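Task: encode each sequence below as structure tokens.

Item 1
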Amino acid sequence: MSSSDLPSDPATSAATTIPRVLSLADERRGRLARRGALGLLTVFVLLGLSGVLGVRTDTTAAASGPLHVELHHAVVARPALAVPYRLTIQRDQGFDGPIEVRISTSYLASFDENGTQPQPDRASTDGTDTIWEFEPPDGDVLTVWLDTRMEPSVQWRRKGSTTVVTSDETVTIDHPLWVLP
């Protein structure tokens, strides 16, 4: 390579390794942008550490005559985290026939379901709802637990509805779920 092949002024060459000199205003804008990004990252980490970005739960109750239904469920969750679903069904003076529990199938599809306790005696679907039928318990309370975690690919809002039907009463509880990324 001859000396004529080299640029005469390395500072103006496109292949230079000499850092570009920034104006004072450019340096201040860059510093401000870095501080802003660091501040946002700090806020995000603090929200995560405080539990705001984790699972939040609620208990919703409804009744119809002697039938009282209470559902402990997730309101906000994140993918792949365990979420609660505990349905407590109470009927004054006990149950006189099978108990039907209907849960939105699209809501159940949001979970990796590991099990249901107790297992339903019969299970079916009508395309919209998953229908479980339980024989009456010895007392006046039936509690149904789902061992679930959020499906990793689920995002945004999921509409959920649980309906409990006994011989003469019907109770419906709506329980939407927000899934944060």
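Item 2
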Amino acid sequence: MHQGKIMRHQHPSQAIKPQRHWINADTVRMGSTAMLLLILALFSIGAWVSDGFTDRRITGVGSDFSVFWGASYIALHDGTLQAYDLNRMMAVIHQFGTLASGSDRLLPWLYPPTFLLVVLPLALLPFWPSYLVFMLATGLFYVKATLGLLGNRVMPHHRAWVTVVGSPAVFVTVLMGQNSMLTAGLAAMAVTWQDKRPVLAGVAIGLLAIKPQLAMLFPIVLLASRAWRTLASAAATVLGFAGVSIAVCGWKTVPAFLESVRWAQENMIDDGGASWYVMPTFLAAARAAGLGVSVAHAIQMTAAIIAVGALVYVWRRISDNGLRIAMLATATMLTSPYLRAYELTWLLVAVAGVVSHGTRFGLSGRERFVLVLAWLLPLFEFVNPLCKLPQIGPLVFVAMAVLVVRRATMYAEHGAALASPLQTNLRARATQPAKPNR
């Protein structure tokens, strides 16, 4: 018997059974459930020690949502332009929001008129009911959009929703009261709809005008994939959305928004201080390491150019939506100079995209490790301002990008016959001669 050939008269009991990797659906589900229970416990303890989050001696849940609700309150009472007045905003937040009364933290309104239009109704409800409605609505949308990337390969009994709801990315977003579940959900829906509902896909992309820096790469991928109907729909949506926003909020909110961007550039990016440790960007990593502003921007620009090149490569080579959204989300995070821990909901979308491809073609042990690391990254970013450890976020993005490009290359070359490293390993095991029974 030669090595590498299967024995012809092998007894069924001697057949080699494939060994499951320790990172699998069951262990991921158990880990996610444990994380979800921990999150619920933390929220419960927080509510108990702060008298239902009403103790103003400490900053409570929804500090960033205080800005959304505050902008609505100011717009409804004083006019939309006043939302960009930092002093007015801080007065409202200290009166109604969850920021500690003695806090010197500044929470300006940094959003364009498009998002001001979206949050306008929030203050029609008191703060806490408004917070709950906003978080539940955007959260349900995000879970549906993320799980939609998996298609019909994941059944309800798999309880895949636990890996989303129990993720650190969702925890940080809900804790801060941010809009990142909405933006990441729109991106996921746009890619999911692109083939069968191109017009709706364009509408989803156009609605990302609420946070323009996260939508900058969509025109590039639509051009690369020649998705003309989606591109036209997105352009029309942006123009209509911007037009209605300016008509309702007033044209003066445009220069006010641009001025807020300049303020954020100077005070939160170039000179962010502690903020750098919660910003998973090459720029923040360089600044935290002591490099100058110009050098940090050069590093960020270099990373952005490489990321865009990889993005175009993936979208031109393959049509698989899972890998496409994974590369798009990863490249978006690599190109944006301003990115906070709560926006890693986009990274979870990238993870879901890779898992979507992996359910069909397998995942290697190394790929599984990278996906788990990406899933856990928001937790590191959230506590890092206290630890002040080197910023590892960009390195995780790079690992994700390399993973996606590699899988896209293999898929383009082999198609349905794609053999992941895991499958190759299993075939190698199966071709080993069986050990005789003792």
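Check on item 2: Residues 160-415 form one domain. Residues 1-17, 424-438 have pLDDT under 50 and may be disordered.
End of task.
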